[in-house]
Amino acid sequence: MAEKLYTIPVNEAFEENCECPICSMYKKLEDDSISFMMGAAYMEDDIRMATDEKGFCRPHLKMLMQEKNRLGLALILKTHLDRQKKDALKYRDKAVKGKALLKKPEECELAKWAREASARCYICDRIEVMFPRYVDTVVLLYKKDAEFREKYKNCKGFCQEHFGMLISKGQEHMSGDELNTFVQLTLQLYTDNIQRLADDLEWFTDKFDYRYKDAPWKNSRDAIERGATKTNGIL
After folding, report:
1. Are residues 11 and 47 in the same domain?
2. Do residues 61 and 135 both lie within one domain?
3. Helix, strand, or coil (residue 140)
4. Last residue of some domain: 84, 117, 144?
5. How does pLDDT run across 61-112, given as a tens digit for each residue?
6. Averaged pLDDT score across all residues of the chain
7. pTM of the full predicted structure?
8. Residue 116 placed within a domain
9. By C-alpha distance, which of 100, 109, 142 is closest to 10?
10. Same domain, 131 and 162
11. Closest of 117, 122, 130 to residue 61, by C-alpha
12. Are residues 106 and 175 in the same domain?
């Protein structure tokens, strides 16, 4: 299969020596989105309108703050705060006064606006447009590309979330024996590599026993970090 827009990052992720290539794909999308935001994009009217409305979640705002474009971020935050103030003042006369004691008060419109606004993030939304297409591409490459299928078979498995996502995507694009083979392989990759990591973590803990003080660390030095990736997708 000729490499196209989505196949290139998928192939690159499965060529990495990592605990979850799907996590790697997500991280690449996230890093690219941060770079995009802190490039010239923040000066484009349509982008700025979107960031003014949505703002950023805590993790992505922290990532933006770590970039070098402090002026760009100041401009983004200034107009976003202006939008927040404007939207909040629309509810000035709609706040619900306290209800009688012992009765559960209904959430007033102002509180609902604040809760929903704080849950929005421009970066998250941008990633969620692209990321499902990447996972679809994994399954489609597995179906059509023998070379990629070998990469898939030889990867180090997946984190729990993305393991489930791959099974679901497999059900969307496959059926019968093809689906059964894919599910069995993906399950085998998942469980075999969990066992590999569990063994590494066990040896890591054994190294704190004085009897093994002078024994080699083998592959256990970074077992906690890799175990975190396998469990919760933390790269």
Report:
1. yes
2. yes
3. helix
4. 144
5. 999 999 999 999 999 999 999 999 999 998 887 665 555 445 555 667 888 8
6. 91
7. 0.86
8. yes
9. 142
10. no
11. 122
12. no
Pair (193, 105) in one structural domain: no
With bands split at pLDDT 50, 70 and 90, how would you rate the model's confidence at 211?
A: very high
CA–CA separation, 71 vs 210, rounded Å?
A: 54
Shared-domain flag, residues 99 and 178:
no
Please give the Cα distance from 159 to 27 (Å, whole number).
Answer: 13
Tokens of 152: 């898939």
Cα–Cα dist 13/26, whole Å = 10
- In degrees, rounded to 5, the angle at the alpha carbon of residue 225 between the alpha carbons of residues 221 and 229 is 140
CA dist., res. 205 & res. 216, Å (int):
13
Angle between helices 58-65 and 70-89 (to 10 degrees): 150
Q: Please give the pLDDT value at position 103.
A: 54
- Name the token pair of 87: 């939207």
Q: What is the pLDDT of residues 6-62, one digit of tens each?
A: 899 999 999 999 999 999 999 999 999 999 999 989 899 999 999 999 999 999 999
pLDDT at residue number 1: 44
CA distance 148 to 11: 7
The CA dihedral of 114, 115, 118, 120, to the nearest 10 degrees, is -120
**Are residues 21 and 121 located together in one domain of the fold?**
yes
And the tokens for 103?
């009765």
Q: Which domain holds residue 233?
A: 156-235
**pLDDT tens, position by position, 117-175:** 999 999 999 999 999 999 999 999 999 999 999 999 999 999 999 999 999 999 999 99
